[in-house]
Write a structure and sequence with these properties.
The chain has 293 residues and is an alpha+beta fold. The protein is 17% helix and 19% strand.
């Protein structure tokens, strides 16, 4: 078997002879001119041009420095920087120290105005100075007869509540002292009492200190379920037993929970709606007395 991949030597007869007219000699091929290396010199296998090294330019900032931008002729001007400080915009001529001082003054004044506005229209704190509302609201021992607290209760009265709803029976309210109350009790300012009689009603106290209510255009009295005052506290005050009081339209009849120590509507009459300040809804001091009323 012959190897098909093997090459056999040609016979001498078959070898071409130089000069034989039958053989055409190809023209001599000139080698190509070597290309110029842009980075210099020839290099062979494995010889690569060196990485170009550029000199430092002043147009690039040094490490850690911020670049500066020069204005280009014909380019639109950059928008002016707007300060985020409102005082800086209002008073551009003021120094930074003066702006800081003015900022503190305005902040404190604004806070004071907000507190005053809240006290005048929303919520106002009050201190309980007497024992007329014991044991519901305490006054400090030694400030008056019947005071039970280690310190006087501080309460919050909702002013804005009276703008949206009329007060109800049983609400504890703060009100400006009527002129008759100042004369009868020997003190003025503001009082804290509980609403017992509503406009148009008739209030009566029986021989045991119980309170009875007769509504407008009614002939029958209804006994008031008085969970605010103990039997002993009602019996201790006998000066008003058997009396009754008519509440005019637009007025409210006030009484204290500690009947024997309360100078209230039984002595000086009802309170006009316009004298009511707010409804007591929360005790915020002392800590052991914190809670809603």
């Amino acid at each position: 078997m012959s190897n098909w991949w093997s090459e056999q030597e040609p016979d001498d007869e078959e070898r071409p002879v130089l000069g034989d007219p039958q053989i055409e000699v190809p023209p001599e091929i000139e080698p190509p001119e070597p290309r110029l290396d842009p980075y210099g010199g020839d290099y062979g296998w494995g010889d690569y041009p060196e990485w170009p090294i550029f000199a430092a330019s002043s147009e690039y900032p040094a490490y850690g420095e911020l670049p500066t931008h020069e204005a280009v002729a014909g380019a639109p001007a950059a928008p002016a920087h707007r300060s985020h400080d409102p005082l800086g915009r209002l008073f551009p001529g003021l120094s930074r120290g003066a702006r800081v001082t003015l900022d503190w003054v305005l902040t404190i004044a604004g806070a004071i105005l907000i507190v005053l506005a809240i006290k005048h229209w929303v919520v106002n704190p009050y201190r309980i100075p007497s024992s007329s509302m014991e044991p519901t609201l305490h006054c400090a021992k030694g400030e008056g007869a019947g005071c039970r607290g280690g310190s006087s209760d501080r309460v919050l009265a909702c002013r804005i509540c009276l703008d949206f709803a009329s007060p109800k029976r049983g609400d504890i309210v703060v009100f400006n002292t009527p002129k008759a109350a100042q004369n009868a009790c020997g003190e003025g300012g503001t009082f804290v009492k509980r609403i017992i009689g509503l406009p148009g009603e008739t209030v009566r106290e029986d021989r045991r200190g119980n309170i009875w209510i007769r509504g407008p255009n009614r002939s029958v009295y209804t006994k008031l379920t008085d969970q605010y005052t103990s039997v002993e506290a009602r019996a201790a005050d006998a000066s008003h037993f058997g009396q009754h009081w008519k509440v005019p339209d637009g007025d409210y009849f006030m009484m204290g929970d500690n009947r024997s120590q309360s100078c209230d509507s039984r002595q000086w009459g009802p309170v006009p709606r316009s004298d009511l300040i707010g409804t007591v809804f929360f005790t915020y001091w002392p800590p052991d007395r914190i809670g809603f009323k």
